[in-house]
Amino acid sequence: MVQKAHDAQRNKINPPTGGILLSAEKPPRFSAGMTSIQNVPGLSVVICSWCMEFFKQAHATYCARYHLVFATKYRREVLKQGMGAYLVKIFHQVTKKFPDVQILEAKTDKDHVHLLVSIPPKYAVSHIVKFMKGRSAHDMRKKFTFLNKVYYGTDGIWSEGYFVSTVGIDEEIIRRYIEHQGQEDSGQAKLVF
Description:
The protein has helices at 2-10, 83-92, 94-97, 125-143, 146-150, 171-185; strands spanning 12-13, 20-22, 45-47, 54-56, 61-62, 65-71, 102-108, 112-118, 163-167, 191-192. The protein is α+β, with helices and mostly antiparallel strands and 193 residues long. Strands 7-8-6-9 form a four-stranded antiparallel beta sheet, with helices on one face. A hairpin with a 4-residue loop joins strand 4 (54-56) and strand 5 (61-62).
């Protein structure tokens, strides 16, 4: 597991512009105002100037971020003050079992949780959500025993479903990337992160 975590960190790619570079021998200096595609000497294409991290696995380079929302069962307002911090701590422990999953942001309310999570494409989002909800319900009921009375006769504290939405680049940037992808495939431009 420790080796997997080390490999995931080593394979993290953070380009200087926060975007994708095509055909650059060495990265030029970039201004904050750079947009999707510009002609820079020694550089064919710059795509997206927003700051985003890309990760590399054996056969995939990805930036897959998801906004997740879990609601408590029956929308009961059981997440009292102080419980939210413990819950966030439990969510961060997911990375022990799945070292390449990252919890980027986590915020709790009285009856639901918002998470911004980076999940690699080798895992199904539903699998990670199932693990997070199951683990957190078990640990929360163990630490806060009043939840056993509130949810008597059930195993979890979360409602059955969840909300998920992808977070990423806009359609125009994807179109421009696809437009120039043929150059990279034919060897005219090399994809460099």
